[in-house]
């Protein structure tokens, strides 16, 4: 704010200095007879004085004491005396509204602002920030404050709110704010924070689904997540149960006698951030993506059927075992929508029985969700993954290596589930050291100098594998406020063969973060200062059985 106020007066100051500078130069030349410039001696005693804090307190006092206000903002049932100068210096939107003569607000002393209920409750905090630059935020207040900052284009406040949200994703999820944060930031284009929220949602789905705000998850958002390959979940049956839980919650909303909002209709959209042309109000954006059930042409029964089809088509039934598919026949939801579920389950059985022509036919289907049915997610079930824990990480020597050996099925199909692929995994949490060695070639002996890589590396070696096209993923765990969660996922598709049986994944964590004492605390778990990772290896195709390439 200081910078913008200074800019308002900066041009006049420059002009004054420009007009007076010639006379000063003339005086300097006229008085410099003794070879000594008296102004030079004065300049050496200059010092920079910064009393900006005191000035800021005086400006804050204008707001606190309601002194010399020249405008009144009416928000809800409250009135806030304010100063045009401060509002215009802090906000581009206020500047246009209050200084542009084409706007009615520029000629009025009392302006009504129409804000969402959540924004009304924090408007005083927002206004005080414009005067003082100080603000105390919480999980409850940060989203409506961000909405006000977006609407009035207060960029420094936007950055402050986003920074707070990034640092508090885990606790926000625990306190039922994650879905609201995610849906708002996705809609408003805050891609940096929305990607962090979305990743936490995908990588910690089982944890997020246990919280109350999961019921408010938008249909479009849920199906977007379900279509992703990097969703971390125990197995596909677990994901199915999560979707069933969400559907039950939507059914309860529809049966509620009070007005409710429910997924299923096109989004109502966000109100514009640009003020209207009348003083009757400027509407703040809505804080959540909501659907108005009153506009639906469906009754509750039809809508639940439609919702079930929309979300369940993203469940990958072929990734369930035949036993799990058989158990679904007894589930009430399957019985209720028998034709739909039997069709999807039959696709799963075709995959497990090796009916590859049928599988190819489904993959060629133009429906996008069908092409994803045969691609595994990041399953943490024991058959697809293994956990590696490094205890007492701070005490380990540089270039320490930890090794793990495990095996996974060569195919997701039950037809060849007995064939196993063996993997050797080596973790380098403290860098990689290549010793000096001599290479013997036909020209002679060549010395290869030593090299050190500052990276956290995971090396995966396929043992006795002729051909395997797989997805390798590393899940890195962290702790915050006593909650264990997945903080990072590094994954890649790779083809292992007899000639190429080694994959190096570098920077699975930032090296400096893991080896710097203050930074590594979030990655280490008590009581042994342990680093925990999970390695998931999933087959993507089965050339041995003539299966189609699955991506």
Automatic annotation (TrEMBL):
Which residues belong to any copy of the BTB domain? Answer: 69-139
Q: Which residue intervals make up region (Disordered)?
A: 1-44
User: What Pfam families does the annotation carry?
Assistant: BACK, BTB, TRAF_BTBD17
SUPFAM superfamilies recorded: POZ domain
Q: PANTHER family from the entry? A: HL07962P, HL07962P-RELATED
**What name does this protein carry?**
BTB domain-containing protein
Organism taxonomic ancestry: Eukaryota, Metazoa, Ecdysozoa, Arthropoda, Crustacea
């Amino acid at each position: 704010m200081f910078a913008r106020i200074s800019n308002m007066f900066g041009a006049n100051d420059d002009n004054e200095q420009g007009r007076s500078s010639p006379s000063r130069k003339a005086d300097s030349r006229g008085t410099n007879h003794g070879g000594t410039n008296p102004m030079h001696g004065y300049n050496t005693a200059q010092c920079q004085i910064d009393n900006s804090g005191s000035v800021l307190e005086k400006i804050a006092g204008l707001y606190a004491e309601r002194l010399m206000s020249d405008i009144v903002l009416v928000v809800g049932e409250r009135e806030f005396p304010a100063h045009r100068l401060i509002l215009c210096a802090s906000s581009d939107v206020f500047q246009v509204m209050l200084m542009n003569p084409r706007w009615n607000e520029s000629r009025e002393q009392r302006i009504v602002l129409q804000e969402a209920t959540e924004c009304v409750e924090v408007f005083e905090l927002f206004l005080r920030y414009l005067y003082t630059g100080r603000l105390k935020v919480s999980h409850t207040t940060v989203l409506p404050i961000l909405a006000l900052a977006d609407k009035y284009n207060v960029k420094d406040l936007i950055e402050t709110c986003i920074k707070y949200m990034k640092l508090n994703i885990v606790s926000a999820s625990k306190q039922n704010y994650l879905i609201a944060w995610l849906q708002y930031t996705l809609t408003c284009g805050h891609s940096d924070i929305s990607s962090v929220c979305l990743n936490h949602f995908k990588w910690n789905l089982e944890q997020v689904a246990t919280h109350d705000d999961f019921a408010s998850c938008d249909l479009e958002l849920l199906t977007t997540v379900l279509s992703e390959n990097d969703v971390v979940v125990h197995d596909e049956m677990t994901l199915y149960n999560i979707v069933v839980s969400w559907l039950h919650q939507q059914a309860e909303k529809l049966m509620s006698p009070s007005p409710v909002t429910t997924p299923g209709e096109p989004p109502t959209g966000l109100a514009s951030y640009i003020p209207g042309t009348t003083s009757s109000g400027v509407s703040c954006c809505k804080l959540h993506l909501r659907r108005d059930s009153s506009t639906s042409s469906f009754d509750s029964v039809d809508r639940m059927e439609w919702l079930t089809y929309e979300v369940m088509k993203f469940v990958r039934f072929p990734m369930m075992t035949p036993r799990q598919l058989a158990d679904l026949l007894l589930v009430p939801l399957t019985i209720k929508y028998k034709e739909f579920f039997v069709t999807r389950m039959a696709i799963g059985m075709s995959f497990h029985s090796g009916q590859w022509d049928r599988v190819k036919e489904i993959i060629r289907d133009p429906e996008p969700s069908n092409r994803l049915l045969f691609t595994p997610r990041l399953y943490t079930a024991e058959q697809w993954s293994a956990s590696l824990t490094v205890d007492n990480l701070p005490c380990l020597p540089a270039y320490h290596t930890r090794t793990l050996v495990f095996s996974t099925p060569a195919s997701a199909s039950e037809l060849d589930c007995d064939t196993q692929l063996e993997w050797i995994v080596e973790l380098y949490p403290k860098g990689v050291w290549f010793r000096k060695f001599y290479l013997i070639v036909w020209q002679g002996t060549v010395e290869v100098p030593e090299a050190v890589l500052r990276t956290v590396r995971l090396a995966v070696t396929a043992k006795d594998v002729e051909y395997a096209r797989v997805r390798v993923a590393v899940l890195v765990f962290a702790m915050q406020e006593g909650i264990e969660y997945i903080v990072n996922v590094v994954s890649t598709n790779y083809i292992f063969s007899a000639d190429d049986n080694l994959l190096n994944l570098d920077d699975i964590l930032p090296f400096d973060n893991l080896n710097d004492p203050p930074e590594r605390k979030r990655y280490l778990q008590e009581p042994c200062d342990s680093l925990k990772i999970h390695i998931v290896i999933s087959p993507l195709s089965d050339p041995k059985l003539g299966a189609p390439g699955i991506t």
